[in-house]
């Protein structure tokens, strides 16, 4: 599947041990009414236990200027939230990353074990959409092991 391009997201949540987050490229919209989205997480992920205990999470749809965050959240779990200047907590407790063009706060609606992954279905309870120029940048894409920014056809 690495030959199929995908948008890059970071999923964050709160846990008893502190903030948890990981990069995910399996994000999809499922339903408008009710507003449902999904992503997959491997059963051997360092974040899986915290995810199973979570009631809510935040899905960040990264912009092309946020490759550094995608790489940070693909590293060792202890490094993901080490730089406290990159994030803050929502009033509901979930960590949220600064400068993300769009993020969605969701409640965990359903967890479905499928093969070696769990399909996470979240019900969207809040949408944050930046209006500033940096946030309006193109989305960050991942294809065949590399990050990309989209280029409109004909350019």
From TrEMBL:
Record key words, sorted: Oxidoreductase
InterPro entries, per the entry: Flavin_Rdtase-like_dom (IPR002563), NADH-dep_flavin_reductase (IPR050268), Split_barrel_FMN-bd (IPR012349)
One Pfam family, short name: Flavin_Reduct
Domain Flavin reductase like: 1-149
Gene3D superfamilies membership: Electron Transport, Fmn-binding Protein, Chain A
UniProt record similarity statement: Belongs to the non-flavoprotein flavin reductase family.
Protein name: Flavin reductase family protein
Organism: Rhodococcus daqingensis
């Amino acid at each position: 599947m690495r030959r199929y391009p995908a948008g890059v997201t970071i999923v964050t949540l709160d846990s008893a041990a502190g903030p948890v987050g990981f990069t995910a490229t399996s994000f999809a919209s499922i339903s408008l009414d009710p507003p449902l989205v999904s992503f997959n997480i491997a059963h051997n992920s360092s974040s899986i236990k915290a995810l199973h205990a979570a009631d809510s999470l935040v899905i960040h749809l990264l912009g092309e200027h946020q490759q550094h965050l995608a790489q940070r959240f693909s590293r060792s779990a202890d490094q993901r939230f080490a730089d406290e200047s990159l994030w803050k907590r929502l009033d509901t407790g979930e960590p949220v990353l600064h400068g993300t063009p769009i993020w969605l706060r969701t409640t965990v609606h359903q967890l479905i074990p499928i093969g070696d992954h769990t399909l996470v279905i979240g019900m969207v309870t809040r949408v944050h959409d930046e209006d500033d120029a940096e946030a309006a940048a193109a989305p960050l894409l991942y294809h065949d092991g590399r990050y990309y920014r989209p280029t409109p056809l004909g350019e």
